[in-house]
Each structure stands twice: as C-alpha cells, then as structure tokens.
C-alpha cells in the first residue's frame, strides 16, 4: 500500500511540475514570416527600334520604330533575385514592321533608397519581325537578351518600372534586293507591376 501511495505521489508531482503553476517557461512555435507578394504581373508600353543603324530616340531612314504592348509575369525569390516572363506585341508602326518578342529573364536587383531599386535583365528569347508592306527586314531570331532598369514601389502592391533591353545585335538579314545587312533590335519599356 505504501508503494502505491509513493508511486501515485510521484505521478502527481510530475504532472504538477509539467503542467501546473510552475515558473518554468515552455517553448512555443515561432511563426515563420513569409512574403506574400512574391508573385506579380504587369503591363506596360514599349518603343521598339529595329534597323541597320540604331538610334532609338530619333527617326532614321535605316530603322523602324514601333509601339508595343508589354505583358509581364514574375516571381521574386528574395529581395535580390527574381525571374520574369515577358511578351511584347507591336500595335503602332512608324513605317512597315510588325514585331513580337517573348523571353524569360533572370532579374538581379538591389534597393538603393526608400523603395527605389535598380535591376538587370539577363535572359533568352525569340524575336519575330514581319514586313507589313514591302520592307526589306523580315526575320526571326532566338538570342540572348540583355537589359537594365529602375523601379519604384508606390505601395506594397504597386511598382512602377522603366528599363532598356537589347534583343538582337547584328543579325544578318537578306533584304528584298538580295543584299545582306546587319540588323539590331532594342526597346525602352515602361509599366506597372502588381504584387499579389
């Protein structure tokens, strides 16, 4: 009988120590903070220049500039790296070209000051340039795309961006006269991203 009382007393004492009014602090799970804004989509406008002698800021007979819609889908792995899918499709032509550009990009980024970021764009994609009337430029090119830009977080959800991308450099194209020219394509893009 004494043994039973001793055993019961030990059990009660153990339970009181584990769950009673003791001064020991028990550990609790620490909530893991996650960034809910990793995925984002965006829209924008582009000015795309394609030609033999490039000058995206002025009109030249040796190039054609087009206005394009830009669509962006991205995922931010961490504050310093994201990946993006981009699609550009021209809707306004200066002369005779229509263009479609698709690419996937690594986007290293760095916050300079108060939600202002600079970033690079390094990717691979396809550029398709089609003649509209009787242009001598008509080609498709899969190539390395290189660019850089700046962005500003207006809110936690909205981000403005502007960047420059070189899509194709010195692509050899045979025009309708049979002569070969080296053609380059680049663009200035501006738009807004929405983070989920």
Structural class: mainly beta
What's the multimeric state?
Answer: single chain
Strand share of the residues? over 45%
Overall pLDDT metric:
79
Q: Which spans have pLDDT < 50 for at least 5 consecutive residues?
A: 4-8, 15-22, 30-35
The backbone outline, from C-alpha atoms, is elongated
Largest β sheet strand count, sense and barrel closure: 8 strands, antiparallel, barrel
CATH architecture: Beta Barrel
The topology string of helices and strands comes to HEEEEEEEE
Structure in words:
By secondary structure, this protein is mainly beta. The chain has one domain (39-195): Beta Barrel (Porin), CATH 2.40.160.20. It has one helix and eight strands. It has one helix spanning 2-19; strands spanning 39-51, 63-78, 81-93, 97-113, 116-131, 139-153, 158-174, 180-195. An eight-stranded antiparallel β-barrel has the order 1-2-3-4-5-6-7-8. Strand 5 and strand 6 form a beta hairpin. The N and C termini lie far apart (68 Å).
Keywords:
mainly beta; Porin; 196 residues; single chain; eight-stranded antiparallel β-barrel
What's the layout of helices and strands?
Layout lengths: L1 H18 L19 E13 L11 E16 L2 E13 L3 E17 L2 E16 L7 E15 L4 E17 L5 E16 L1
Antiparallel strand pairs: 1-2, 1-8, 2-3, 3-4, 4-5, 5-6, 6-7, 7-8
In short:
The chain has one helix at about 1-20, and strands at about 40-50, 65-80, 80-95, 95-115, 115-130, 140-155, 160-175, 180-195. The chain is mostly beta strands and about 200 residues long.
